[in-house]
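Appendix C: a fully annotated inverse folding record. The material below is reproduced so that readers can follow the format used throughout the book. The structure is listed first as tokens, followed by the designed sequence.
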């Protein structure tokens, strides 16, 4: 019943770098900017991974609608808060010291804040689902999964730009911007929990620039 939701989440876009073999030619100013951002990013990536993992662990056909609703609502709240914090991290770091850095930063912050608002909206929709009728609940989850797919496939151009070229190379070298890995037990969504997930964290692979 929750499988489509989990699948949609796994394809979502977020500020996670999965680069390998990048050139090491970023200058010190760009590296310093990347470190400042990535040091703040890691806890939020972990929260998103945890939330996604909790949803994936509620994909059994035997899961009760009320349990799925509680898990999904808490997860969406946690993801929304994490995206908001990611936007604040990119904003507080200032523009990256590259060409057109100010515009790139502003657009990335705008997208992250937009994603935060979108997940908050999804939380409200989950909370409003009818849990006493399993068929209606499943239909409602299907609609939410479709909206998740839209979030996943639209509006990540600025993030891709932020994670490209010299800035992307510098960010990829920072431990804080790496995709969280490890297993997790499900969480009901306390934003302070930080147990890592298996493979739930979405990612955007930035374009490479020699």
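Designed amino acids, in order:
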């Amino acid at each position: 019943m929750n499988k489509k939701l989990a699948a949609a989440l796994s394809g979502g876009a977020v500020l996670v770098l999965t680069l390998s073999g990048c050139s090491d030619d970023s200058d010190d100013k760009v590296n310093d900017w990347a470190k400042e951002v990535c040091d703040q990013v890691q806890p939020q990536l972990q929260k998103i991974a945890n939330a996604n993992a909790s949803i994936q662990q509620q994909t059994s056909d035997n899961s009760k609608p009320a349990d799925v609703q509680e898990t999904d609502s808490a997860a969406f709240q946690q993801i929304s808060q994490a995206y908001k914090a990611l936007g604040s991290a990119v904003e507080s770091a200032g523009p990256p010291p590259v060409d057109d850095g100010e515009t790139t930063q502003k657009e990335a912050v705008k997208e992250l804040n937009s994603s935060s608002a979108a997940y908050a909206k999804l939380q409200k929709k989950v909370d409003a689902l009818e849990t006493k009728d399993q068929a209606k609940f499943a239909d409602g989850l299907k609609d939410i999964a479709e909206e998740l797919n839209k979030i996943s496939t639209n509006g990540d151009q600025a993030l891709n730009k932020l994670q490209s070229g010299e800035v992307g190379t510098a960010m990829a070298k920072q431990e804080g911007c790496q995709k969280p890995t490890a297993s997790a037990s499900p969480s009901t969504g306390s934003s302070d929990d930080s147990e890592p997930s298996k493979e739930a964290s979405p990612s955007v692979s930035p374009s490479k620039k020699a």
